[in-house]
Protein backbone atom coordinates (compact mmCIF):
# COMPACT_ATOMS: atom_id res chain seq x y z
CA UNK A 1 0.00 0.00 0.00
CA UNK A 2 1.42 3.39 -0.99
CA UNK A 3 2.22 5.52 2.08
CA UNK A 4 2.20 2.55 4.42
CA UNK A 5 4.61 2.67 7.35
CA UNK A 6 4.08 -0.98 8.30
CA UNK A 7 1.41 -3.67 8.02
CA UNK A 8 -0.59 -3.94 11.24
CA UNK A 9 -0.04 -7.71 11.29
CA UNK A 10 3.75 -7.14 11.51
CA UNK A 11 3.32 -5.65 15.01
CA UNK A 12 2.52 -8.05 17.85
CA UNK A 13 -0.58 -7.12 19.84
CA UNK A 14 0.57 -4.81 22.65
CA UNK A 15 3.97 -4.71 20.95
CA UNK A 16 6.18 -2.08 19.38
CA UNK A 17 7.75 -1.50 15.99
CA UNK A 18 10.22 1.09 14.81
CA UNK A 19 9.68 2.63 11.38
CA UNK A 20 11.23 5.48 9.43
CA UNK A 21 8.92 8.30 8.37
CA UNK A 22 9.15 11.88 7.20
CA UNK A 23 7.63 14.05 9.92
CA UNK A 24 7.49 17.81 9.43
CA UNK A 25 9.89 17.48 6.51
CA UNK A 26 12.56 15.52 8.39
CA UNK A 27 13.39 11.80 8.34
CA UNK A 28 12.56 10.45 11.79
CA UNK A 29 12.57 7.19 13.71
CA UNK A 30 9.02 6.52 14.91
CA UNK A 31 7.77 4.08 17.56
CA UNK A 32 4.46 2.43 16.71
CA UNK A 33 2.52 0.67 19.48
CA UNK A 34 -0.33 -1.68 18.65
CA UNK A 35 -3.24 -2.49 20.92
CA UNK A 36 -5.71 -4.70 19.08
CA UNK A 37 -6.72 -2.92 15.88
CA UNK A 38 -5.58 0.51 17.03
CA UNK A 39 -2.15 2.11 17.02
CA UNK A 40 -0.37 5.06 18.56
CA UNK A 41 2.95 6.48 17.48
CA UNK A 42 5.64 8.78 18.85
CA UNK A 43 9.02 10.04 17.75
CA UNK A 44 11.70 7.64 18.99
CA UNK A 45 13.25 10.38 21.14
CA UNK A 46 13.26 10.53 24.93
CA UNK A 47 12.44 14.07 26.14
CA UNK A 48 15.03 13.72 28.93
CA UNK A 49 18.27 13.62 26.91
CA UNK A 50 17.12 13.47 23.28
CA UNK A 51 18.28 9.87 22.82
CA UNK A 52 16.46 7.02 21.13
CA UNK A 53 14.33 4.89 23.42
CA UNK A 54 15.22 1.52 21.86
CA UNK A 55 18.18 -0.47 23.22
CA UNK A 56 18.87 -1.89 19.74
CA UNK A 57 17.19 -0.84 16.49
CA UNK A 58 13.50 -1.69 16.84
CA UNK A 59 13.92 -3.37 20.25
CA UNK A 60 12.10 -1.68 23.13
CA UNK A 61 11.93 -2.34 26.85
CA UNK A 62 8.54 -2.76 28.49
CA UNK A 63 8.03 -2.77 32.27
CA UNK A 64 6.07 -5.55 33.96
CA UNK A 65 3.23 -3.00 34.16
CA UNK A 66 3.31 -2.71 30.35
CA UNK A 67 4.92 0.74 30.15
CA UNK A 68 7.56 1.81 27.64
CA UNK A 69 10.98 2.27 29.27
CA UNK A 70 13.83 4.33 27.83
CA UNK A 71 16.86 2.06 27.61
CA UNK A 72 19.33 4.85 28.45
CA UNK A 73 18.15 6.44 31.73
CA UNK A 74 15.00 4.44 32.60
CA UNK A 75 12.34 7.08 31.93
CA UNK A 76 8.99 5.26 31.90
CA UNK A 77 6.11 6.26 29.62
CA UNK A 78 2.44 5.31 29.67
CA UNK A 79 1.08 4.27 26.29
CA UNK A 80 -1.96 6.53 26.05
CA UNK A 81 -0.69 10.09 25.84
CA UNK A 82 3.00 9.10 26.05
CA UNK A 83 3.45 10.82 29.42
CA UNK A 84 6.58 10.10 31.43
CA UNK A 85 5.29 8.70 34.73
CA UNK A 86 8.66 7.84 36.31
CA UNK A 87 12.29 8.75 35.83
CA UNK A 88 14.29 11.85 34.96
CA UNK A 89 11.66 13.53 32.75
CA UNK A 90 8.54 12.80 34.84
CA UNK A 91 5.63 14.90 33.57
CA UNK A 92 7.10 15.38 30.08
CA UNK A 93 5.57 13.67 27.04
CA UNK A 94 6.82 11.80 24.01
CA UNK A 95 6.07 13.72 20.79
CA UNK A 96 3.01 12.09 19.23
CA UNK A 97 2.94 11.27 15.52
CA UNK A 98 -0.59 11.07 14.06
CA UNK A 99 -1.21 7.65 12.55
CA UNK A 100 -4.21 5.56 11.53
CA UNK A 101 -4.92 2.04 10.34
CA UNK A 102 -6.20 1.84 6.78
CA UNK A 103 -6.70 -1.41 4.89
CA UNK A 104 -4.56 -3.27 7.44
CA UNK A 105 -1.64 -0.82 7.22
CA UNK A 106 -0.38 1.87 9.57
CA UNK A 107 -0.22 5.21 7.75
CA UNK A 108 0.57 8.79 8.72
CA UNK A 109 -2.69 10.71 9.26
CA UNK A 110 -1.69 13.84 7.35
CA UNK A 111 0.59 12.25 4.82
CA UNK A 112 1.46 13.64 1.47
CA UNK A 113 2.27 11.07 -1.25
CA UNK A 114 5.97 11.04 -0.34
CA UNK A 115 5.59 11.63 3.41
CA UNK A 116 6.24 8.11 4.64
CA UNK A 117 9.04 5.74 3.96
CA UNK A 118 7.89 2.20 3.38
CA UNK A 119 10.99 0.71 4.99
CA UNK A 120 10.57 -1.04 8.32
CA UNK A 121 13.63 -0.69 10.50
CA UNK A 122 15.08 -3.63 12.39
Features:
mainly beta, disordered C terminus, 4-stranded antiparallel sheet, Rieske Iron-sulfur Protein, globular, 122 residues, 0% helix, 11 strands
How is this structure best described in words?
This protein has about 120 residues and is an all-beta fold. It has one domain (about 5-120): Rieske [2Fe-2S] iron-sulphur domain (Rieske Iron-sulfur Protein), CATH 2.102.10. Helices cover about 0% and strands about 40% of the residues. It is built from no helices and eleven strands. The protein has strands at about 5, 15-25, 25-35, 40-45, 60, 70, 75, 85, 100, 105-110, 115-120. A hairpin with a 6-residue loop joins β7 (about 75) and β8. Mean pLDDT is about 90; it is low at about 110-120.
Rg value: 13 Å
What overall geometry do the principal axes of the alpha carbons give?
globular
Low-confidence stretches: 111-122
Give the end-to-end Cα distance, rounded to a whole number of Å: 20 Å
CATH class: Mainly Beta
CATH topology: Rieske Iron-sulfur Protein
Reading side by side through the largest sheet, how are the strands ordered? 4-3-2-11
